[in-house]
Amino acid sequence: MKHIPVLLKEAVDGLNVRQGGKYIDATFGTGGHSAEIKRRGGKVLTIDADPEVHAAVTGNFRDIERIAKEHGFERVDGILFDLGVSSMQLDTPERGFSYRFAGPLDLRYDPTLGTTASDIVNTYSEGELYEIFSRLGEENNARAIARAIVRARGVEKITTTEKLVKVIGKSQPVLSRIFQALRITVNDELGALREGLSSAGKLLINGGRLVVISFHSLEDRIVKQYMRNSDWRVLTKKPITASYNEVKANPRSRSAKLRIAERL
């Protein structure tokens, strides 16, 4: 499936792009938001953690301050974070991001770094698995799923998406929550988000815009709380969500929430 940028117009409108202004797309993906910023006359530094994405810089946005300074973007007019997983990642079986495809149980944005999802399901204790499934997946049956995984791996290591699906069962909402919890853990997504937001605040000029698109309540809560501090004027009292027509054209936009704040 071709990746369609979520809330494209709303996000770029939120940046308030001016001719010759400097902007950072901290989650480049397939470049839809960056292309629109450039079309409106902005200069863009593009960053993505996935080395298979053709961003200007391969790196985690938790390091956005260092990356920006290395590339002459130490003072910028706007920063965009689109926290969703791209269709390219979801639809590539060998990346292991989706329970819909048979593939290795990986889920790393950068395949050269860190722990895989397979490492987690085969080495974490039942209590640790319960903790990530309940807290990061908000899964009501986390205890039973953690117990089933520990029992199954005692017979055979769980190294593929299809083996994990077999253990959990075929309920799509449950699978979605478990894969979300594993992906967040593998990539330390919430820690990276907190660090990235804090650094973004240091890079923006007075009046600069911070635009964040999140896709689940854990991310949105962090963004909402961060924007409430005294350094920001919140421009979205309630998050902007996708229209009926956008959701119909791109079902993956249905959970998106867009928040915008201006640096004081």
Task: Give me a quick take on this structure.
The chain has 264 residues and is an alpha/beta fold. It is 42% helix and 15% strand.
Task: Write up this protein.
The chain has a seven-stranded mixed β-sheet, sandwiched between helices. The longest helix has 16 residues, at 172-187. With 264 residues, the protein is of the alpha/beta class. The protein is elongated. The model has no long low-confidence stretch (mean pLDDT 92). The chain folds into two domains: 8-87 and 190-263, 3-Layer(aba) Sandwich (Rossmann fold); 89-187, DNA polymerase, domain 1 (Orthogonal Bundle), CATH 1.10.150.170. Helix 1 (8-15) crosses helix 2 (32-39), helix 6 crosses helix 9 (172-187) and helix 10 runs parallel beside helix 11 (217-227). Strand 1, helix 2 and strand 2 (43-48) form a beta-alpha-beta unit. The N and C termini lie far apart (40 Å). It is built from twelve helices and seven strands.
Number of strands: 7
Looking across the biggest beta sheet, what order are the strands in?
Answer: 3-2-1-4-5-7-6
Low-confidence stretches: none
Order of helices and strands: HEHEEHEHHHHHHHEHEHE
Strand content range = 15-25%
CATH architectural group of the largest domain: 3-Layer(aba) Sandwich
Biggest sheet character: 7 strands, mixed
CATH-assigned homologous superfamily of the largest domain:
Vaccinia Virus protein VP39
Judging from the principal axes of the Cα atoms, what is the shape? elongated
Number of domains: 2
Termini, distance in Å? 40 Å
CATH topology of the largest domain, what is it called?
Rossmann fold
Report mean pLDDT, rounded to a whole number: 92
Helix fraction bin: 40-55%
The CATH top-level class label of the largest domain: Alpha Beta
State the secondary-structure class.
Answer: alpha/beta
Q: How large is the count of helical segments?
A: 12
Radius of gyration: 19 Å
